[in-house]
Amino acid sequence: MAEANNPSQRLQDRRPLSPHLEIYKMMFTMVMSGLHRITGMCLYAGTLLLAWYFIAAASGRGAFETVNWVYSSLLGRLVLFGFTWSLFHHLMGGVRHAIWDAGYMFDAEGRELAAKGTLVGSIVLTVIFWVLAYAYR
Amino acid sequence: MSNKSSSLRSEASTVRSLGASRGKATHHALMLRLTAAALMPLTILFAFLVVSLVGRDYDSVMRLFSHRIGPGTIALLFVLVGIYHMKTGMETIIEDYAHGRWKIGLLVANTMFSGLIAAATALAIIKLAVGG
Question: Which residues of chain B are within 8 Å of residue A61 when distances are taken between CB atoms?
Answer without folding.
Answer: 58
